[in-house]
């Protein structure tokens, strides 16, 4: 299990890699979603993510941060998501 502050640091590092700037990062209890992103730039993640594997957390983080660029789940969103996650996979394999 990862601590909330360490998780927020994961989010900040991923945001820097993606060149996005969330206004706020929150971790709280959520029953229906893994995360959400507001129009104002606030990203909120479920505390349940703290007990999930790092690769799953990364997918959720990338997905939500990508909403700071593309607000919907259209073709552009899906293409960018695949691209970011593919790049992440390459970095993991290189290390």
Topology:
Elements: H1 4-18, E1 24-28, E2 35-37, E3 42-46, H2 54-66, H3 75-94
Parallel strand pairs: 1-3
Antiparallel strand pairs: 2-3
Helix pairs in contact: 1-2, 2-3
Description:
This protein has 95 residues and is an alpha+beta fold. The chain has a single domain, classed as Zincin-like. The protein has helices spanning 4-18, 54-66, 75-94; strands at residues 24-28, 35-37, 42-46. The chain has a 3-stranded mixed β-sheet with strand order 1-3-2, with helices on one face. The model is unreliable at 90-95 (pLDDT under 50).
Keywords:
95 residues; alpha+beta; Zincin-like; disordered C terminus
CATH class: Alpha Beta
Instruction: Give the ordered list of helices and strands.
Output: HEEEHH
Count of individual domains:
1
Assign the CATH topology.
Zincin-like
Q: What global shape is seen? A: globular
How far do the termini sit from each other?
A: 22 Å
- Under the CATH scheme, the architecture is 2-Layer Sandwich
């Amino acid at each position: 299990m990862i601590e909330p502050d360490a998780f927020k640091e994961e989010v900040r590092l991923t945001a820097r890699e993606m060149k996005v700037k969330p206004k706020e990062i929150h971790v709280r209890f959520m029953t229906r979603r893994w995360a959400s992103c507001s129009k104002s730039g606030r990203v909120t993640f479920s505390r349940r993510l703290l007990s999930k594997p790092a690769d799953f957390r990364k997918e959720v983080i990338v997905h939500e941060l990508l909403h700071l660029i593309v607000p919907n789940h259209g073709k552009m969103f899906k293409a960018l998501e695949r691209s970011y996650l593919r790049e992440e996979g390459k970095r993991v394999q290189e290390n």
